[in-house]
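Troubleshooting entry. Yesterday's outputs looked truncated, so today I'm pasting the complete records for two proteins to confirm everything comes through intact. If either block looks cut off, that's the bug. Protein one:
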Amino acid sequence: MTNEADSERDSPRLNSLHPKLKELFDALNQNGMEWLLLRGADRLERPLGDVDLLVSRRSLSDLDLIVRSHAFLRISSAVLSTRRGYVLYDHLSNLWIKLDVVCDIAFGPVHDLMSPLGSGILQRRKLVGYLWLPDSDDAFWHLLLHFGFDKGSLSSAHISVLAASLKDARVDGEFGRFLSSVASETVLSRLLEAVGATDVESANVALDSLRQAWISQENILSRVSAMIRRALSRLNLGTWTSLRPGAAVAVLGPDGAGKTTLAQGLCESFAIPTTYAYMGLWKETRWMKRIARVPGASVPFVLGRMLARRSRVTYLRLRGRIVIMDRYHYDAYLVPRSAAWRQRITARLVLMLGQPADMILILDLPGEIAFSRKGEQSVEELNQWRESYLSLTTHQVPNSIIDATQSASLVHQDASQAIWEFVSLRRRQRQH
């Protein structure tokens, strides 16, 4: 992945926009929206990070309608109420596009350093191609504070980027005057001198002085609000959340189909907050072996473990997350009638008490290929499992069959598209 500081170093290739972004920006302009791209104009052909937009408050409701009409889903933050997020999965480019929309200019991990600069930056914006961009002076100061406050501190890569555009910085502009009122022109002068000399340590010292002065000027209400947001963030409650409720997605398939690889890969790549949940019940652990020595203790232990995992998935769904369930309990359908009565009863209890799935991904793989990958079970048994999984498509739960003979990347791409279509459809149904 391209480092943000490295990408800022290159001149913007403003004609190289991702088609979905080009359509969206054109629609915003045609509807007279007041907006601008805060940074990263050279990363829009394949945006791997957030696309950061500043929008006027009076345009916010109209922007929401336009963005959602272009198939983006809205997500929100439990901590940052002044922020809106929108996500879109584009199957053709296998890319998640995420918009991070703000109405105010603020800095810090939870945007606790507020400023009145938003409207002025919008008034001074300039149109380049399809993009509205900040004035060069505003762009320099905003990028400096983004690196220094949002990222925690300046690095040598950040300093190099800033030094290249130092000529655009003005102390007597609106941004500079505001920062001088927060700290002093002396602090700003030391900061600019350190950037010009690419002195990372001195620049961070000056930034720390600016930060402390900024915090000291905040009123009591703002400080308390920032403390609450930081506390929630530490509890992992401040991250972007998807539309509530979330979704429990079961990944099924025979051994060798790549269930775990796919489930973990989806959690790493999704722009919508996603969590991996291992739901297997029969894997022998140290505790399982000890409990098995006690007659009749295995079944209560397995059911207790299942209920604990169900509780976790339920909690994550309520928080609006997508939960990718590996080794889902529908494996209990594979227990044959010839199995011991205890095993059959356990399987029935599991099916009754287990976490319901909102959607099923079935990795379809012929037994011959599954056997060549894992070498476990017989080809005949694996093909029986395959038929059992495919029979689940007759259930009421939405499902998608994915060809697991493809490469892992193509399987991942098809699974991403299937989940995105499911989430998008459910969202549209709830809006009507």
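Protein two, checking that the full record survives here as well:
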Amino acid sequence: MALHWFATYLTKKYSKNKKIGLDIGCGKKPYMNFFNSEYVGIDIFSEISNSKEQRPNIFAIGENLPFNDNTFDFITSYSVIPYVEKIDDFISEIYRVMKPKGIAIIIIMNLKALSKDPDGYYPNKFSSFQLEKKFKLNNFKSIKNKNLKTFFWSYYFDFTSVYSYAILESKKSISPNITKDKLFRHKFTKKISKSSILHKLLKKLFAAYCICFQFLHVKPDFLIIGAAKCGTSSLFDYLMMHPQIGKSLTKQIHFFDRYFDRGHAWYVNCFPFIWEKFFHEKIYKKIHYW
């Protein structure tokens, strides 16, 4: 009861004036109706997914969220973190998809609750203090003490029930070192996004460009596949030192996990033009070894 009542209150209060919210580990979506914003629920596949009403909007894991950067301004995660294997990746993904000054509500089973299940497997066990400290290390700040009601009930339930609470705000902001040109483009893009017709038109034009001119781009000869923190970035940097290896648009295109819906034509356009390959194979190689 404590979890449901207070989680309902926190969801209603902090989702006010927010455009879109994400519920990580939504389960049967018990808090969907309490969101004062557009609701997106994600969870891993399970038997409850057979019910259309209770089915998550997206099947995914918290360590690899299939969303663009700066998508959500409100995120909840209730009773999920103790089960997460890669907690740093989980928090980093929350930070990545959250807009500047976004709010995250985290509720977990506290140490008292987990001690009652000694045989259970919980990779991460935190008290409220440890939970807030972990998020602070990942560029979040606690705002639990800014509201008197939140302050009182969060500490009350933390000591009397089996749940701990963290109400956090993202420290993300536009870099102060941003150039005037980038700032102008940022404002221009923001204005375009507000005009849905213009935004859709530009997307269609870009999609048409990708389809028409994909033949001008080369396809990759090899892919670098690896887990996080296993040296793929270093390998990429070493390969880019070679003058006869072309560079993709970005180091991580994320076509196969996040942007697959953009299509094969978009993927091919992320690679160099065919004349760049021709220059390096037919001209640069002869000059270099002459």
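Both blocks look complete. Sanity check on protein two: The radius of gyration is 23 Å.
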